[in-house]
Amino acid sequence: MIQSVLQVLSGELNNFLELQTEPVERPLVVMSALARQDGSPAIVAENRVVCTLVNIEQERTALNAPSGNKLFRSNNPVHLNLYVLFSAYFAPRNYPQALAAISATIAFFQSKSTFTHQDTPELPFNVSKIIVEMVSLDITELNNLWSALGAKHLPSVLFRIKMVSVSTGTLIEEFARISTIESQSDTG
User: Fold this and answer.
1) What is the spatial distance between Cα 126 and Cα 54, in angstroms, rounded to a whole number?
2) Contact indicator for 157, 101 with CB cutoff of 8 Å
3) pLDDT, tens digit (0-9, with 9 covering 90-100), for 8-48
4) Contact 151, 50 (CB under 8 A)
5) Are the CB atoms for 133 and 114 separated by under 8 Å?
6) What are the residues facing 85 on neighbouring strands?
7) What's the pTM?
8) Where does the pLDDT of residue 127 fall: very low under 50, low under 70, confident under 90, or very high at 90 and above?
């Protein structure tokens, strides 16, 4: 499901970027790691915006959310925040295009920060809505991120993709919600 969400977002961004910038190659947006395990670059072709998942975080605020008038006994869905880095992997001679691609990436997610089935029918059926927020890192956090990725710094922007839910949908038991409390009184 994570790959489906990222494929949809990458596809939408790709369509936008191809209209806003002059793509050197197609597709302009690719999903990939930035470095292989041995430290060599993972991207073979240059002049791309690379979509890389850098962290998965459980959304703790949605753990005990009620679900309508019925109570269900099931394993609660896991609500996730995905941290996704978009990096401009361009040839040095195309550095201005790299900056234009990152600027257009920011503009795209600023103009469309919420994705639902009404405006993005390609979303997986079990994802009702996702929200995209830009994450700002200070210079130390940025250095740590690029060190952890094992890659050289590129023009990039980090986004938090909020409320991607993972659930098998298995219902164990259903209960009616208690609406009134009655008491018996002794009249004897």
Assistant:
1) 22
2) no
3) 999 999 999 998 877 667 889 999 999 998 888 898 888 99
4) no
5) no
6) 52, 158
7) 0.81
8) confident
SS3 sequence, the chain? Answer: CHHHHHHHHHHHHHHHHHHHCCCCCCCCEEECCCECCCCCECCCCCCEEEEEEEEEEECHHHCCCCCCCEEEEECCCEEEEEEEEEEEECCHHHHHHHHHHHHHHHHHHHHCCEEECCCCCCCCCCCCEEEEEEECCCHHHHHHHHHHHCCCCCCEEEEEEEEEEECCCCEEEEEECCCCCCCCCCCC
Structure tokens of 135? 């994450």
Query: What distance in Å separates the CA atoms of residue 14 and residue 129, rounded to the nearest whole number?
Result: 20
Dihedral sign, CA of 60, 106, 148, 29? positive
Locate tokens 């609500």: which residue? 79
Ordered by start, the domain boundaries in the chain are 2-173
Look up tokens 């470095």; give the residue: 35
Measured between alpha carbons, how far is residue 164 from residues 26, 83, 116, 175 in Å?
A: 28, 11, 12, 27
